[in-house]
Amino acid sequence: MYRRILNQSFGPGGWGLMPRGEIIYQGESDGAQMVAREYALYCEGRFVSQSLGEHTFFGKTNQQYGNACESAKSSALRRCCKDLGISSELWDPKFVSQWKDKYAVEVWCQNQRTKEKKKFWVKKNSKQQFSYPWVAAA
User: Fold this and answer.
1) Do 129 and 84 sit in the same domain of this protein?
2) pLDDT tens, 10-35?
3) How many domains does the chain fold into?
4) Same domain, yes or no, for 83 and 18?
5) For the chain, which has fewer Cβ within 10 Å, the N-terminal or C-terminal residue?
6) Are 35 and 55 in contact (CB under 8 A)?
7) Do 44 and 72 fall into the same domain?
8) An example of a Gene Ontology BP annotation on this entry (predicted)?
9) Model confidence over 46-88: pLDDT tens digits?
């Protein structure tokens, strides 16, 4: 969505996300791994914003690592776009509460590895599949 809005506003190639450092990789004791990288958003050749993107993942394949790096980039883009006011209503608690009341429900999920239980929001009437290690609790 953010890329589409930037393309509509500045045209394809009218904006860019530039890496501002190396990828930071950190393994956790529970098997989770995290990647992070700082990016800067430029629009029409001018600096707009800078932010850190991160993503936690499980597994050790290159594909998972590559997907995690792309997710970190998307996370940074989302954060940078806040400075342009793109989707700023998503940071308004009143808007979020009203949207959840109208379109979403909470579902209890359980972590398959740790047995931790946690609530997740999903759209009403959605056949949502949760990402590993989370599954809908019975």
Assistant:
1) no
2) 999 999 999 999 999 888 767 788 99
3) 2
4) yes
5) C
6) yes
7) yes
8) recombinational repair
9) 999 999 999 988 876 666 888 899 999 999 999 999 989 898 8
Q: Residue 118's pLDDT is what?
A: 93
67 in the same domain as 102? no
Q: According to the model, what pLDDT value does residue 26 have?
A: 86
Q: Which residue has the tokens 């808007």?
A: 95
CA nearest 72: which of 31, 113, 111, 33? 33
d(CA 30, CA 107): 24
Both tokens of residue 10?
């500045």
